[in-house]
Amino acid sequence: MRLILLGPPGAGKGTQAARLVAKYGIVQLSTGDMLRAAVSAGTPLGVQAKEIMNRGDLVPDRLVIDLIDQRIDAPDAAPGFILDGFPRTVAQAEALDALLEKKNMRLDAVVELVIDESELLSRVENRVRETLRAGGAARADDNPESLKIRLEAYRKQTAPVSAYYACKGALKQVDGMEPIETVGQAIDRAIAA
Ligand code: ADP
Questions:
Q1: Do the domain assignments include residue 142?
Q2: Residue 130 alpha carbon to ligand 1 centre in Å
Q3: Which position among 13, 36, 50, 172 bears the catalytic label?
Q4: How far is CA 38 from its chain centroid?
Q5: 87 near 30, Cβ under 8 Å?
Q6: CB of 56 closer than 6 A to ligand 1?
Q7: Ligand 1 nearest-atom number relative to CA 56
Q8: Residue 48: which residues within 8 A CB-CB, separation 6 or more?
Q9: What is the CA radius of gyration of the chain?
């Protein structure tokens, strides 16, 4: 099973990905998580990405394409994967098509979580409050200034990715405003269809 989950920051991609991982025995490949790990480890990639991410902008396409290209060859990704946070630009989507073809792999579904934009800020604020309450540290980009830039990047660079897959007839849209369970069921139906 190979899936892509699309949706703006705060749409619930991480929550739904965790459920799909358990259900299908596949791995979640989140470019955001991979980049944050590189930043924490202080690798050359992390050093390059840190300021861009903190600001809320997208890192250069080539960096994340290379990350994904290598990551989907790992043995744990052989049963399948769910891409979360990638592709985030049309250039990334095109590169993904090319590398899947090269690897002889096919996507099973592209699912977009559709959310009212007015809801997103409060969702991210909630996530920050819950993380702090649990004794964790908030993400460096979960602040109002960076979130504004992340939403702009989403509108300008990532929204066209939905159109890219819609044109190919591959896009399934799911109402992300419903309760977590209901969204999960809608995703299951979209995948089965
Ligand atoms: P969000 O909660 O905003 O969806 P992510 O955890 O997916 O955040 O990503 C955090 C940041 O990592 C992004 O704002 C961006 O700087 C960088 N990033 C993650 N994935 C990509 C990607 N596919 N292309 C470019 N930048 C990315």
A1: no
A2: 20
A3: 13
A4: 17
A5: no
A6: yes
A7: 14
A8: 59, 63
A9: 16
Q: Does 182 reside within a domain?
A: yes
Q: Which tokens hold the place of 55? A: 């600001």
Alpha carbon distance 91, 59 (integer Å): 13
How far apart are the C-alpha atoms of 60 and 108, rounded to whole Å?
27
Structural domain includes residue 125: no
Mean pLDDT value of segment 50-73: 96
Tell me, yes or no, if 139 is annotated catalytic: yes
Question: Of ligand 1's atoms, which has the minimum distance to the CA of residue 13?
Answer: 4
Looking up tokens 């897959």 gives: 165
* Tokens 């990638």 belong to residue: 86
Residue numbers of the domain that contains 33 = 2-116+159-192
Residue nearest atom 27 in ligand 1 by C-alpha distance: 58
Report how many domains make up the chain: 1
Q: Could you read off the pLDDT of 20-53 as tens digits, one per residue?
A: 999 999 999 999 999 999 999 999 999 999 999 9
pLDDT reading at 193 higher than 90: no
CATH assignment of the domain containing 39: 3.40.50.300
Average pLDDT score, the chain: 94
Query: Is residue 12 within 6 Å of ligand 1 at its C-beta?
Result: no
* 127 catalytically annotated: yes
Which structure tokens are listed for 192? 């089965």
